[in-house]
Specification:
By secondary structure, the protein is an alpha/beta fold. The protein has helices at 2-14, 30-41, 77-90, 111-123, and strands spanning 20-24, 47-50, 67-71. It has a domain at 2-90: Cobalt-precorrin-4 Transmethylase, domain 1 (3-Layer(aba) Sandwich), CATH 3.40.1010.20. α2 links the parallel β1 and β2 (47-50). The radius of gyration is 21 Å and the shape is elongated.
Length: 130
C-alpha cells in the first residue's frame, strides 16, 4: 500500500530529528503500531501511539523542542488537527510539513463502467424531450 510505505519512509526521516514522535492511530491498527516501532528503530526511543487529543502522553513532551507527528493510513485528518490544537493550548507550536513523496496514484475506470457510461450517453439525447 502506497500510503503505508510512504508513511514509514517519512517516519524514518523524522525520527532521528525528533525528541519525541507521536503516531496518531488506533491501538488495533497494525500500520500505526508499526510506525511507532519504526520511529524507535530509527532513533527516537520516545515514540508513542496516540489515539486522539484525549490520550496525549504529556510527560513525553517535557523539555523537548522537536516533536515528530504522523498518523496511521486510516486515521482521519481531524484527529491530527485535534492533537495539534491540544498541544497548541499548552505550548508554542510551529508546524513544519515534510513531504517526501507526493501521492499521485491514478486508477483507470474499469472497462465495464466505461462501456456502461458510453452506452448511457448514446441513449440520452440531452434535450429532455421525448
Amino acid at each position: 500500500c502506497y500510503a503505508t510505505t510512504n508513511r514509514q519512509l517519512a517516519v524514518k526521516e523524522i525520527a532521528p530529528r525528533s525528541e519525541a514522535v507521536f503516531v496518531i492511530g488506533s491501538p488495533n491498527s497494525s500500520n500505526s503500531n508499526r510506525l511507532v516501532e519504526v520511529a524507535k528503530v530509527y532513533g527516537c526511543s520516545n515514540a508513542h501511539l496516540v489515539q486522539d487529543e484525549n490520550n496525549i502522553p504529556w510527560d513525553a513532551l517535557h523539555d523537548i523542542k522537536t516533536l515528530g507527528l504522523t498518523a496511521g493510513a486510516s486515521a482521519p485528518d481531524i484527529l491530527i488537527e485535534n492533537v495539534i490544537a491540544a498541544i497548541r493550548k499548552r505550548y508554542a507550536v510551529t508546524v513544519e510539513e515534510i513531504v517526501l513523496t507526493k501521492e499521485n496514484v491514478v486508477f483507470n475506470i474499469p472497462r465495464i463502467l466505461r462501456e456502461a457510461e458510453e452506452n448511457s450517453s448514446k441513449a440520452h439525447t440531452g434535450t429532455g424531450e421525448k
